[in-house]
Records
---
Amino acid sequence: MSKGTLYGVGIGPGDPELMTLKAARLIAAAPVIAFFAKKGRTGHARRIVEGRLHAEVLELRLEYPFTTEISVADPAYLADMGVFYEACARDLAAHLDEGRDVAVLCEGDPFFYGSFMYLFDRLKDHYTHEVIPGVTGMAGCWTSAGAPMTHGDDVLSVLPGTLDEDGLALRLAQCDAAVIMKVGRNLPKIRRALARAGLMERALYVERGTMDDQHIERLADKRDEPAPYFSIVLVPGRQRPR
Amino acid sequence: MSKGTLYGVGIGPGDPELMTLKAARLIAAAPVIAFFAKKGRTGHARRIVEGRLHAEVLELRLEYPFTTEISVADPAYLADMGVFYEACARDLAAHLDEGRDVAVLCEGDPFFYGSFMYLFDRLKDHYTHEVIPGVTGMAGCWTSAGAPMTHGDDVLSVLPGTLDEDGLALRLAQCDAAVIMKVGRNLPKIRRALARAGLMERALYVERGTMDDQHIERLADKRDEPAPYFSIVLVPGRQRPR
């Protein structure tokens, strides 16, 4: 019996119509889909593909072991996540060994800050695989904000809000456009770093971009409260004369 | 008579199946499509949508005034491009004023290094508009290369190969993953900057990613000849233990 193929399928930033034609075709045909979800939640990826799955699909729900955010610097986090990803990879392998293709649903793009990569790393040498790129969450956000991001020779930096203030300010000073992810509890620090780099006036705050309940405002107008997981800060590049 | 709507439609990195469901729907319905092309060429964007257009579509070909690359630092370039974009905007406006929707085909994502932004800036205050994000060329490239790009807290920088060697080396030293665009004649300089930042071993060279004739190799193995327009250099982020 031949083994199944592992697909990593980018399903885009949230609006179901922003998945690619190829993603829609593969998801409709997949005998098994797998997706990550937080405990007690439907799973954001699962919601995006609602109504598009094969009638007899088997669903593999991969539930994160943590319900709240733990610092990635914590050794316990790394160890527990390693055990979790190992178990997920074994679950997928069981289907692949039985000859069933498995499509892993990936929010945004599979190779851009995605959990899928930890399964890919464990399985790629043992199974045929194909990855389908997707529209990133950040592209969904800058589109929703009506904000042209990068022109001509702009330098763009994508920065985690978890960097310390000096690290953020240093990198912000050397780019024309920036995306700051993992805003969460880091908003006051991000704000200080942007001010030091002289970028506060251009900064936009985007919550749940492309989703029904999206919220966008100038960061300068935003209150300093903790931000939800799906929030990012955008600094559009300089407008060039042309 | 009501005016038409301006659509900026991201059509993805090259493989026609990597456009979004929404892009395909809007393109099939558009009474007018517009796209940029070089003199004497079909136009890359036009080729991607072949077979998907409305039977009675009007096609607006926007032909760049230059056949070879001119430095963006040259004042003549800026002035000539300004005249060109003004003329393009007037051509689009004529259709919009007649009540016809116009879909501008945008390779990759419209707000990410796209010529569409120069039309958007000129027309957005006068017409209803909607922008549809797309899969970027760089996401197409890293997927084709089988290269997971960014994990966890990685810093990603997108750099134009036109930066000077010191500017490239400085920014490369402060990121975990990098994408270098506009490789063209800048390859020897890019190579020196990557070597100074200690990133040469991880660097990949990708030509025409996701297209039928794509070519991928380690940058260390690549000969020092001028690279075509659709080539980029990828530096995948560090592989994290997990």
---
Amino acid sequence: MSYFDAASSAPLHPVARQALTASLDEGWADPARLYREGRRARLLLDAAREAAADAVGCRPDELVFTSSGTRAVHSGIAGALAGRRRVGAHLAVSAVEHSSVLHAAEVHEAGGGTVTRVAVDRTGAVDPSGFAAALRPDTALACLQSANHEVGTEQPVAEVAGACREAGVPLLVDAAQSLGWGRVEGDWSLLAASAHKWGGPAGVGLLAVRKGVRFAPQGPADERESGRAAGFENIPAIVAAAASLRAVRAQAAEEAGRLRELTERIRARVPSLVPDVEVVGDPVRRLPGVVTFSCLYVDGETLLHELDRAGFSVSSGSSCTSSTLTPSHVLKAMGVLSEGNVRVSLPPGAAAEDVERFLSVLPGAVAAVRAKLGAPVDGPGASTVREDSLTVDALGKRCPIPVIELAKVFGDVPVGGTVRVLADDEAARLDIPAWCEMRGQEYVGEEPADRGSVYVVRRVS
Amino acid sequence: MSYFDAASSAPLHPVARQALTASLDEGWADPARLYREGRRARLLLDAAREAAADAVGCRPDELVFTSSGTRAVHSGIAGALAGRRRVGAHLAVSAVEHSSVLHAAEVHEAGGGTVTRVAVDRTGAVDPSGFAAALRPDTALACLQSANHEVGTEQPVAEVAGACREAGVPLLVDAAQSLGWGRVEGDWSLLAASAHKWGGPAGVGLLAVRKGVRFAPQGPADERESGRAAGFENIPAIVAAAASLRAVRAQAAEEAGRLRELTERIRARVPSLVPDVEVVGDPVRRLPGVVTFSCLYVDGETLLHELDRAGFSVSSGSSCTSSTLTPSHVLKAMGVLSEGNVRVSLPPGAAAEDVERFLSVLPGAVAAVRAKLGAPVDGPGASTVREDSLTVDALGKRCPIPVIELAKVFGDVPVGGTVRVLADDEAARLDIPAWCEMRGQEYVGEEPADRGSVYVVRRVS
């Protein structure tokens, strides 16, 4: 069994396990109490805070432990926005932030605030000058991830932090995906992270707020963690989180090089092993262990099942694997193919043999799914009947069927002719233009329809 | 070392430790994922939910795990209030709720809602008819703890739940102190609890919301835990919480009887072992392991240090042991003596010998603190100068000094004369009337002063 979904959650690091079990006997008491057990718990908590702050690159009194990375993001955004309420109620975030950031932004909008979602390029990165242009006199806060969780693309955090500093806007960095690999460089103001992403236990996030950043914690008052994280401290887990962060950091440079080579193999070889694949994300500025690709004419959920049966645990941003029936907002913002999407995120220690086995299994798995769906194997054939314009009714059909239906009839129109695909699946909006790009055909545009939309494609070759 | 502060946090139960370490290898993956590791995590989570729901007495789909008891309370109150926004914005809580409830009530008030804090009697219990009288047509929610965390008094939850049901108001029960001992009886609507109170690990709370209760989760959207508890699930800790709840319940009846006998010893013998002590809380309707008493002329913090040095870890509601310089809101609401306050809360398994040793150590510890403070050893003596009215200036002096100053000069006024104590310590407002009650003297009342207040006492014997 090869677990290739470290970006969701990493298996517990041996150091975390050891620290956790060792501190269960010492860390259960209330660190606010003055008696022996309380003082002992407090010492553990203080030591963990020092270690975590050192790894983050901040002062211990700037860092609090939260109950998850999501909580760190929610509390960080709410507190920073409230702290700068007088400046204004504008929030700037990248369009490819983690859902915890985007959901916090939605709450801010629902409460009367305004939000700018800064676009990304096709690799998933924001342009620093584009981000800077989104900052306004009433911008209370800006948020940018250190690296994207779905495609691994690293963001230009230091440049954006510089632009924010110049504009007098605090920048919150969601460092969930990168903190295990190293400090976030640049002049950020707030930073959030999640321990189970670096092999620490679940139940621990961290939020750093630089001195001088205006911050007003929201929600009911609570004395714990400087009033920034309500609820009894989970000290054994905090100790384990700090210990494992230190441990993964000690191996980070070496392990990053090793994983980067493995993901490079996947990046380089998948397009030749599997026809009609788009590898997405920045080929260079990227997390060491993450590689993402999408496969034309493939149902992501079925592919994940196939890979699971073959012993590989990966995730997908395809709409059919989400409960919302929409493709991942990240793929959408990048404008890349979403169907048959696979994210491989290697945990530290992932073996080269397992990556090789994955590469040997993948072509068959994709072919099996395509065969089941009746996907076209060749390019557009020449039909006997050729019409200038054809309409495909794919209403009620889910990804990847509308694209398959398009491909099947595409050869029936002559060069210069158009195919109109009527579809109400959200993924079509992303995948039909992506198909055009992959096939070198012209995507004319989208037209409204009584139900769904019509996507118009012109045959140019 | 005897740890007698289980009401703050109980040492990890052996079953919790075992379940936690056993599930570290199985429960780290994302339970929302469809691959093997995710399905395994989901199975653990589902089984824990079933077990916890059985212990609570609700359906599994009515129960979510939160990151702490505090979070369960905050989310429960916010969600229930928002769910019944159309009914009104009135919240009824008892005056002796846990701070998590009271802080949530403060946030509600700050947002324009109204709050009624229902008074308690001298034992710390609400009167069901008094609670019912606080319910109004615009009451969105009522909150009542199952038992008080500082004095152990059990609340008449079933009666209050009945009154709430009749008024059509949902009742949220904070069962943090009692869930390990048994289900909360009565027709409650929401229930919150905290695992580390019953020997489970930190980082796990639970929130039950009965079907049919209007509930609108607040804060940024999150798909986990039915949208009611944001953040990645801490499954090993959840498994440990559920397993230990089952384990403590299996021993609850027997252990309750044993601890009740031990706390009864303390209740009965402390007043004869230590002069000028008030044992507080209901002598019968109370938690098995909790007993609280206050000692006249004693500085709570110093007493806690003395007891810590003697090997006993207890807590205190005295103002001098809190960061706010005010006595515990519970003691205040009960109108009992707050100085020299000691809460003994025995963990399951507490040994009779340790309780006996505590009883043998306590008198010396109290006497040592009193001697340090120069507390009067006898009743009011007869001074040669007797004046009809004396004023004691205790400005700037902290609990228990104002009461000691009062006692020192009290013999200097004749029967019928008054002593006026000028003090700006919050505890004086509680402790001077309490002193009068213990001494059988008349508390005349409080008068405003330029700084602090004047507390007037008339000598009647």
---
Amino acid sequence: MADFIYVALAGGVGGAKMAHGLAQVLQPEQLAVVVNTADDFTHLGLRISPDLDTVCYTLAGEADASRGWGRKNETWNVFNRIKQLGMPDWFQLGDADLATHLFRTASLEQGKPLSQVTRDLCRMMGVALQVLPMSDDLIQTHIFTSEGELGFQEYFVHRKCNPEVKAIKFVGIESSQPAPGVLEAIRAADAVIFCPSNPWVSIDPILSVPGIKKAIEGKFVLAVSPIIGSETVKGPAAKMFAEMGIPASALAVAEHFGNILTCLMIDKQDEVLQEKINTLGIQTYSSDILMRDEADRGRLAMEIIEYIKGWESAIQ
Amino acid sequence: MADFIYVALAGGVGGAKMAHGLAQVLQPEQLAVVVNTADDFTHLGLRISPDLDTVCYTLAGEADASRGWGRKNETWNVFNRIKQLGMPDWFQLGDADLATHLFRTASLEQGKPLSQVTRDLCRMMGVALQVLPMSDDLIQTHIFTSEGELGFQEYFVHRKCNPEVKAIKFVGIESSQPAPGVLEAIRAADAVIFCPSNPWVSIDPILSVPGIKKAIEGKFVLAVSPIIGSETVKGPAAKMFAEMGIPASALAVAEHFGNILTCLMIDKQDEVLQEKINTLGIQTYSSDILMRDEADRGRLAMEIIEYIKGWESAIQ
């Protein structure tokens, strides 16, 4: 049996950790990571792709684990001067991180598509597996809140997710196309893994790019629940479920994605929900899904791969 | 007699030193500095105004005197990463300098004119006198050389002024306008001072913005020669004269500017040229015009001011 091929859909930190785990147990040619780019924005004239950077820095071993974003051993000389000059300081920019943004901004202005820029950055950082932006087109998540319509980073970083979410829109998505390689990677894949990223603002944008959901349907799809108990490990996913009128739980995640899922991987503490999830036509697999450290990432990835391989051999 | 009002036209290092000298001996409201912006360019997506930055950093006491460009106590963290990522490294970007470029780029993208951005930067750096870009419009010096047409920074920094100059063009200048305040400052001035900047690529662009030369004509205009003997202190001015078929000298400077000049300030070693310059209808004043240190700047500025005041009271 030839090695399986996998596609992982990822947002920021949770997605990056899961992708890093998968990279530990798979060969680079066995895995493509499709990354949400609807968080992308332009700040101080720089084109910033927060999720792509988090995924790439994490895969390169260059992410700052304690801070949860940006690069390790980072310095802040430009940012300190930015503050002195009275420029907006709500989005922190490390010196080496800035070089990434300058590279991306200049490359895009030269007419290179984001997928090519991402490939160049991965090559320079020694990331061997395929990291693909969901689209080369600019798509921007807008959050409609109790305090008006906010760009995603404005909501997420500047306003610290405080405003109550009423609705979410991915501006520009209807006319967007998957980046080159995305549909090809999905079609070639034996299984698709939804990393434990925010369903509303990380996985949904990827699935909403015309053609991607259709390419995934019928594949073996395993999602790792971003909700444990009624909480999320990081970010506003649980708060968003609640504000959308849905109690946050692994069951809510299963209902959110619906029958595109073959299996939902849930935490052991949520085993009580297995039966309800199964009645949706979705398998469950329970484990310790919290990734506390790098060893946890690899261990969880190995469980996922073994589960998928076992299921595939069972039906063959 | 009320205090005189002065306008200085300036390019990069020589212009900045002279402006700094004038700032030492004049009140801020007595001096406006109009700065060449035809060296401006976009690099790695950043809008860079080398002459404006050199003038502002120098006036703020933040310029690096030994290097001759950029800021003192500068660090290079972003630039080191830029090199690691394989981006162009022929134009060096210090960390704090980068913050200036980010501020300018973001402000311009928000629709602020360059003159407003410059005013904001001056305020933040504590520069009290008026520093005006010659124009808010993008004007770009192109150098036609033995090796083809080059953008100014490409010629000046990347190619180190090596290609032989055949012709110089200020692209976009015909349709440009003086920045707000420029004509007003010239009209209000008792005298205009051409700093010892490159006649070809620093002073000529300023004089070529429609309306500026006409506003200056008839004023008392004193130029400080950027040529001492047959050499320039810094930059390619002497080389440009030679390649244009004109032996570089203070006389060549006088002939270059012609009778817009009331007086050319020359170095003592060029006193032999006084008679020939005078026959052009241009006064001469000879002194030690080399600015070796900050004290030289103030001393030279004081001599200029006293010469102008003496001339004005003589004709009244």
